[in-house]
């Protein structure tokens, strides 16, 4: 299915790619990418000859009915790995464990250090968990990746995708073997994550914001709620005038 999905994406959207030579032909590596769109996990594997495994909510694989089975088949076909979010440790520990297993098999593991999609196209602070811990526990090289314009293909609320060419820039591998086994040191985890995010910023050209994307989303939601409340109060005042 990867071949059919990848071929269809390349034929339809014709993504441009720079730096393919930085992805090893064999052996383990971590692809650390910015995250602009739901489609990022499909476009990146589509342009590579090797399989890339990303993590996805387990719900995508367990939904009943025909639609659920088709969704599960699609996600499996494009290299998505189900992760159980239940339990006291949540998805974070499950994702780290899954990533380490992928690396141990000598494969490519894809991860989004921001932890969620950017709410406004800017690059947000990387979370010092999954990426750094998998890298330091395994010694695998980290390859920074920048997705370009993928958020413009299908903005929130738009049903039909826009036919345009997204881009992918792949940077040189980063070697963190000097920190091997130090995945329990939070200062080292922060340093590794920040170094990777800096390389992604250079590749993507995005404005960097030194807060987490989850916090930015809360701020945006709070501001929108406040705006709606203000409009409601204004309308109420007008009607009572």
TrEMBL record:
Keywords: Acyltransferase, Coiled coil, Transferase
Domain of life: Bacteria
SMART domains to which the protein is assigned, alphabetical: PlsC
A Pfam family that the UniProt record links to this protein: Acyltransferase
MF annotations from Gene Ontology: 1-acylglycerol-3-phosphate O-acyltransferase activity
Domain Phospholipid/glycerol acyltransferase: 29-150
GO biological process: phosphatidic acid biosynthetic process
Entry coiled-coil feature ranges: 213-240
A GO cellular component entry from the record: plasma membrane
Name recorded for this polypeptide: 1-acyl-sn-glycerol-3-phosphate acyltransferase
